[in-house]
Amino acid sequence: MAKITGLVLPQIKAITAGRDDELVAIEYVKEKGKNYLRIYVDRQPNGIDMDEIASLSELISEKLDTLDPDPLPDPYILEVSSPGIERPIKTESDWQKALDNYIHVGLYQKIDGKKMYEGTLKSYNDDQIELEIKIKTKRKKIIIPHKLIANIRFAVEF
Q1: CATH number reported for the structural domain that contains residue 97 in this entry
Q2: Alpha carbons 120 and 97: distance in angstroms, whole number
Q3: Which of 81, 103, 134 is the last residue of a domain?
Q4: Which residues, at least 6 apart from 45, have a Cβ–Cβ distance to it below 8 Å?
Q5: Pick from 31, 32, 34, 37: which is nearest to 2 by CA?
Q6: Cβ-contact 155, 118 below 8 angstroms
Q7: pLDDT value at position 4?
Q8: Which of 28, 69, 109, 123 could staple 130 via S-S, CB 3.0–4.6 A?
Q9: 136: left (phi over 0), alpha (psi -120 to 50) or beta
Q10: Quick one: average pLDDT of 127-134?
């Protein structure tokens, strides 16, 4: 599956770059007997709307249909979408955008009795993150080692 994404990635990157879209992720998966090529895109600063996604989907579909040899010889479903407002933090670009913003962190094991935290990302490096959390009316900073992070994503603060 990684081979297929590697073959189509340069084509998709060229299309998204030409439109000033940000290619967030690409995956080729088999689910319930069907193949899916999923492409997640965003646009700064205000995101990407449905019309832009539809236009991009057409461009990508047309380009993939012209490739020879066909990197996707089996039937597949092309899905182009926004990664969503609460998308996972994966790339260096994501980390930079997350800095000083509200995020959700799920842990493999408890820190101070909790396996889930939401707060403002104050700093990060290869070993750990610093998260500012709110406890009632007080703010507290906690350090979370990367090895304890099960998942991390952008979050909406209520």
Answers
A1: 2.30.30.180
A2: 12
A3: 81
A4: none
A5: 37
A6: yes
A7: 85
A8: 123
A9: left
A10: 96
pLDDT mean over 2-12: 88
Specify the 3-state DSSP secondary structure of 146. helix
CA dihedral over 3, 5, 8, 9, signed as positive or negative: negative
Whole-number Å distance between alpha carbons of 156 and 154 = 7
- Show the domain range for 125: 92-154
- In this predicted structure, what is the pLDDT of residue 106? 97
pLDDT tens-digit series, residues 70-104: 898 899 999 999 988 898 998 888 899 899 999 99
Task: Tell which of 81, 101, 130 closes a domain.
Answer: 81
Task: Say whether both 71 and 116 belong to one domain.
Answer: no
119: which strand partners? 103
Is 76 domain-assigned? yes
Does some domain include residue 86? no
Give dist(CA 108, CA 74) in Å, integer. Answer: 38
Q: What is the pLDDT of residue 1?
A: 62
Determine if the pTM surpasses 0.90.
no
How many folded domains does the chain comprise?
A: 2
Q: Are 11 and 34 contained in the same domain?
A: yes
